[in-house]
Amino acid sequence: MALRDKEAQDLARGLPLMQRAGQAAAEWVAQTIAPPAQVLALAGPGNNGGDALVAAYLLLSMGFQVTVVMPLLTTHPPLDAQEALANWRALGQPTCATLPEKKPDLVIDGLFGIGLSRPLAEPFQSLIDAVNTWHTNVLALDLASGIDAETGFTLGRPIKATQTIAFIAPCHAFRVPNAQPFLGQCRVASLNI
Question: What's the pLDDT tens digit per position in 126-180?
């Protein structure tokens, strides 16, 4: 877990941080497009993926058509992310390993966020490349996947977000010019912390 996430959980005194992040993302989507629009949630192996899964099941309950793509299942995901995945599956919803053929109205980038510190590997790089060819709305959670949160440098070919929602506070990469073309419009959701 990133130090910032741990500090936020301590500040929240055990309140469900992932639920707050997913709800903030779902609310942003609902302000941007209307149901029954198609939403694709890209869920990575960590907490960022859990945030995307929470947003996915909240959007499904709002009447959106939601597909979740998890290109790689990890054997030991964080507990909150495990719970988010279990909640998604409890709704009878599957996860896919590959992208759908039809371009969605909006993509939620929950692949890595602030947790990436090494170059993008497969299958993530190919998936990001394919999403970038769609030229559709992309909401990045915390940070566009493929950007190093500490330096703002690219770690491969990052996803090109049209919007980025930082949870609690923006990371250093938000202030680095190299990262700007991948972030789109940026906003902060304080999550009431």
Answer: 999 999 999 999 999 999 999 999 999 999 999 999 999 999 888 888 899 989 9
β partners of residue 38: 65
Distances (CA, A) of 54 to 42, 152, 153, 160, 176: 12, 27, 28, 22, 29
CATH of 3-189, one of 3.90.850.10, 1.10.10.10, 3.40.47.10, 3.40.50.10260: 3.40.50.10260
**127 contacts 99 by C-beta, under 8 angstroms:** yes
* Cα distance between residue 99 and residue 57, in whole Å: 18
CA atoms of 7 and 131, how far apart (whole Å): 33
- pTM beyond 0.85: the answer is yes
